[in-house]
Amino acid sequence: MSAHVEEHFAGSNKLFSTIWIWLLLITGIEIFLGYKPMALHFMLTILLGLSIIKAALIVAYFMHLKFERLSLILTVVPMLVICICLLFVFFPDSFRSAGLRYKFREPPPVVKSETENE
Amino acid sequence: MSTEARAETFAAADWEGGVLPYHVGHRKLGMWLFIVSDSLTFSALLMAYGYLRASNVWPTPFPFSPSIIFSSVMTFCLLSSSLTMVFGVSASSRGDKAGARKWIVATILLGLTFVVLHLFEWRHLIHEGLQPFFLPKHWVEAFTTTDGVPPSPLFGATFFAITGLHMFHVLTGALYLSVVAARVKKLKHEDVEISGLYWHFVDLVWMFVFPLIYIMSVDVHGVTKAVAG
Fold it and tell me: Nearest C-alpha of chain B: how many angstroms from A99?
């Protein structure tokens, strides 16, 4: 890393085009996966994983963070990741309120006895 | 040079004042901090959407045509606009101001295409009968569970809030970039780069909105159409 890195915009147009093609490919995979029957949480995990890869590519190359100083990366990234992860604290409450809803797991007993009488 | 050795040589002089410790200008650092705070806004909205979705019966109403086709083309536009923006910044770094202006104008046009397509997509959903706090009748029929639990009417609220805020960011970005394009000859390279940072951030947010809002709500079995028809 020389002192010139800050003055010049590192990365060639060829590199940026390659990144763009990767981003398009990953988007294509995401759309394809949307039509694959699979468990919701499984799909969510894959989609989020792919999105994080895409975000990392954009931040590292398009937003140029890979070529910035380590001190800037350490200031911007870990704090954001920690804050976003802290937001997951709400989900147990979400699952709880989903579980509170009354579900008819068995047919009501009155109906059962009527069918028996017939 | 290893990271540790580099850190040592940086450490002493950089934080004693008189120099830019991050080796970026104040405005660029400011834009980074704005981006961090704005990502938290969008994360909070997406988390709220996840919270509602996990605690309710949630409709998955988007048909392949037009919703998924439109949103995919929109994604393509936004990704391409990021590429033209990075070409613009690259041209500006070489001192090629005219080239930078050309690429930035291309970026604005792609951004506006995104907004127009998105408004068509909104109009389609509004015509179906979607409102912030009401679902179209045939969606309610299609997605009510066998237990008789209706789908959450908050679908529209989350959809319009999240995509609307994103659209507002795209419009703001287009406005910002048109000022940059108009004044590109007077601006320093770093100022062009800062506008690029904002534009890429808008693209980055869509990379989360698109899968979570659109792909997670694909109407795979054509339920909505079956009920309507």
Answer: 8
Question: How many domains is chain B partitioned into structurally?
Answer: 1
Task: Measure A117 CA to nearest chain B CA, in Å.
Answer: 25
B-chain CB neighbours of A8 within 8 Å are 93
Helices (H), chain B: 3-14, 26-55, 69-93, 97-128, 137-143, 154-182, 189-209, 223-228
Q: Nearest-CA neighbor of B169 among B205, B197, B215, B214?
A: B205
CATH of the domain at B192: 1.20.120.80
Chain-wide mean pLDDT for chain A?
A: 83
**pTM score, two decimals?**
0.86
In a domain, B6, yes or no: no
Stretch A69-87: mean pLDDT: 93
Taking only the tens place, the pLDDT of each residue in B68-96 is 999 999 999 999 999 999 999 999 999 99
- Asked if A34 lies within 8 A of B6 by C-beta distance, the reply is no
Of B39, B55, B90, the CB nearest to A97: B55
Residue ranges for chain B with pLDDT beneath 70: 1-13, 228-229
Q: Nearest Cβ partner of A9 from B54, B90, B211?
A: B90
Residue B158 within a domain = yes
Q: Smallest Cβ distance to B93: which of A8, A58, A62?
A: A8
Taking an 8 Å cut-off on Cβ atoms, the answer to whether A23 and B79 are in contact is: yes
The verdict on ipTM greater than 0.85 is yes
Could you tell me the residue range of the domain that residue B122 belongs to? 41-228
